[in-house]
Design brief:
mainly alpha, Four Helix Bundle (Hemerythrin (Met), subunit A), Arc Repressor Mutant, subunit A, rod-shaped, disordered N terminus
Length: 356
């Protein structure tokens, strides 16, 4: 998987959908939020200067009122009933900004209501933890807390499989790089091209792409032809499954060729025993041998066939024991103890002259 084109996954592709660690130094929304809170305005054009200034004034006014309410909240004790009223007023003052953060992640596959709920939970957490005596503005502290809660929701609640932050963080970069490469070249990038464009290793890019496919897998109960084609059956019905009968077919074909290579007697014993359902006694009577001999031949033949199936070699032919030569000499009665040994014939004397 080095140069194969990338396929689309079920993970959404919003403009800014990152579940890694938040860094406001590289976040335009965080910079604009800080600028709005502090009253710093960066005009983008003549037509938008007035609107930007009005928004900046509203945020500055909300920031001043929030700071005053937070100071009052900080002076109250933990069990004071006035804390709930002050916390509700602070939340109402910052509702617009909290919803704007939630809308930034609306394209990530989660309902906007859930995202707003998580964002407001982050706001309440920031209100409870904020210390006005430190001399910093509230939204400079609260923005990373709210965004962190939203991203933690994506990391912990939406992933089917638990994926580490190291894997999740490069995923938005890979998505944006894929979209940019496709727009420039008219085709999907390979893994090597995508890794080089993002600036990570190719193996790391492969790991991220494979892991992020677990973000939102498709249900096996979903219609195979889409929501409009309910008569096409489910996806699970079109998936193949392991068929154990196919293994028996393969083994049967291999065994057929091995049986043809066996000697005729061993092949007959195997066929009669396993395909003819004969007993060993019936096979022995048919071949004219003993039942013990049939059992011995059957065991040896099965062992050879098993080794041949496992190793893929031809079954060796069983070696027959060498036949012993029969003694053709006439049978002699053993000599008794009281009998003398038989006299050996004396050699014929040779003539000294003729050597006969």
């Amino acid at each position: 998987m080095t140069d194969a084109p990338l396929r689309g996954t079920a993970f959404p592709n919003p403009a800014r959908c990152d579940t890694g660690r938040h860094d406001t130094r590289h976040d335009p929304a965080a910079s604009s939020a800080t600028a709005s809170v502090t009253g710093t305005v960066t005009p983008t054009g003549t037509a938008g200067v007035a609107g930007t200034e009005r928004a900046s004034v509203r945020f500055a006014d909300a920031d001043r009122r929030t700071a005053a309410l937070l100071a009052d909240l900080h002076r109250l004790g933990p069990g004071d009933p006035g804390r709930e009223r002050l916390r509700a007023e602070i939340t109402a003052l910052n509702t617009t900004f909290v919803r704007s953060i939630a809308r930034r992640y609306a394209g990530c596959g989660e309902p906007i209501e859930d995202l707003e709920h998580v964002a407001f939970m982050g706001l309440v957490m920031a209100i409870n933890r904020f210390d006005p005596t430190r001399g910093i503005r509230f939204w400079v502290y609260a923005y990373p807390v709210v965004v962190g809660e939203v991203r933690r929701h994506f990391r912990d609640k939406t992933w089917v499989l638990r994926v580490s932050r190291r894997i999740q963080k490069p995923w938005p970069l890979l998505q944006r790089a894929t979209a940019a490469f496709t727009a420039e070249h008219g085709r999907s990038p390979t893994t090597a091209e995508l890794a080089g464009r993002v600036g990570i290793g190719e193996e790391e890019a492969v790991e991220v792409l494979l892991a992020c496919e677990a973000y939102r897998p498709q249900s096996l109960d979903a219609p195979a032809g889409g929501p409009a084609d309910a008569d096409s059956g489910t996806i699970g019905e079109h998936l193949g499954a392991d068929d154990s009968a196919l293994d028996h077919v393969v083994d049967g074909q291999a065994l057929r060729s091995l049986l043809a290579q066996l000697p005729e007697r061993e092949r007959t014993i195997v066929l009669l025993r396993f395909f003819g359902n004969h007993t060993q006694s019936q096979i022995a009577a048919q071949l004219g041998v003993s039942q013990i001999h049939v059992s011995r031949l059957l065991t040896q033949t099965l062992q050879r066939l098993r080794r041949s199936l496992l190793t893929g070699t031809e079954p060796p032919v069983a070696a027959r024991p060498p036949t012993q030569k029969r003694d053709t000499r006439p049978h002699q009665r053993p000599r008794q103890r009281h009998e003398k040994p038989a006299a050996r014939p004396r050699p014929r004397p040779r003539h000294p002259r003729t050597n006969l």
